[in-house]
Design goal:
five-stranded antiparallel sheet, 6 helices
Length: 315
């Protein structure tokens, strides 16, 4: 199998394709196979790293093809059995679809452009003399991650979550929250209470991947959350009425649900039929007063999103 045909297979594409289709397929696969998603399992994380290398290589081959040809490239025909094949009139070698020098030059150009874009973004995003915070690619909301915007007013500097059974990962604005920002502060018969250290601004969004074992305690489950300011005052809670919370239960839609603030915003969270009876008490004990409600999706493995309200435009 030649390099080009393999690249199409790795990205799940069938020629002819456009440059935008190649980029979209690449972005989707990177979100699915990013090693950070498997930080809890060293073996899976290593496998994800190898898969990501394969995806990057395929992306470079296809992108180089579009750049070099000026049109959508087609897979190279299988080489014949002739001992001395005639030279290719376009200057391509029989070992691969593209001349190695063209591929190398194109990769260098792509990396240079990415570096320049990263430096420009950090200069715009951060105050003078500080380091930029983690970012994600900006594009139209209908076809990619939500564009990065200047931070709005700070509404919370910490969070408290109670889950039965537990939260697998937390994402803020499309980026995984590092483990050092999460602190397990309580555990009751397997249900977990966490304190998160994070700055939530107007317009931010948070995604929680929560799981439950249906064989424990009659299938009872629970997820409750509260955001707090630096003085411990509650600024937002999990609830179903405001429309700020939504859910996703389709694994295929999860990468986009994480990356885009408004994707599946209309898919409301649900009331829990068999709620863990001690969840509200755990939150009340730690907060002083619990005014929210537990929420869930439709599956035992669900993703729940909170979208912080955006500031109203100035009159």
């Amino acid at each position: 199998m030649d390099d080009l045909t393999r690249a199409y297979q790795v990205l799940g594409l069938t020629p002819p394709v456009s440059a935008e289709q190649v980029k979209r397929a690449y972005r989707d696969l990177v979100k699915v196979w990013h090693p950070d998603r498997f930080g809890h399992d060293e073996r899976l994380q290593q496998a994800a790293q190898e898969k990501l290398k394969e995806i990057n290589g395929a992306y470079e081959v296809l992108l180089a093809g579009l750049f070099a040809e000026g049109t959508t490239p087609a897979p190279e025909p299988a080489p014949d059995s002739s001992p001395n094949p005639p030279p290719d009139p376009a200057g391509r070698t029989r070992g691969g679809y593209f001349n190695r020098s063209v591929v190398g030059l194109t990769i260098a150009v792509v990396l240079l452009l990415a570096l320049v874009a990263g430096v420009a973004w950090r200069a715009w995003r951060s105050p003078a003399g500080t380091t930029a915070s983690a970012s994600h690619p900006a594009s139209k909301a209908s076809s990619g991650p939500t564009p990065e915007m200047p931070p709005g007013k700070l509404i919370a500097s910490q969070m408290l979550t109670v889950a039965d059974d537990f939260v697998v990962e937390v994402y803020q604005n499309g980026r995984r929250l590092p483990d050092e920002k999460r602190n397990l502060v309580g555990e009751t018969h397997g249900a977990t209470t966490e304190q998160l250290t994070l700055a939530v601004h107007e317009g931010d969004w948070l995604v929680f991947n929560v799981v439950n074992d249906r064989f424990r305690w009659g299938g009872a489950c629970y997820f409750g959350a509260a955001g707090m300011d630096s003085r411990g005052n509650v600024t937002f809670v999990s609830e179903r009425k405001s429309g700020q919370w939504s859910s996703c239960d389709d694994p295929g839609a999860v990468p986009r649900f994480i990356a885009e603030a408004d994707y599946l915003a209309a898919d409301a969270v649900h009331e829990i039929p068999n709620v863990w009876s001690q969840g509200d008490g755990e939150l009340s004990q730690r907060l002083g007063k619990w005014t929210g409600e537990p929420i869930w999706g439709t599956n035992r493995n669900t993703w729940l999103k909170y979208r912080a309200p955006r500031a109203s435009p100035a009159p």
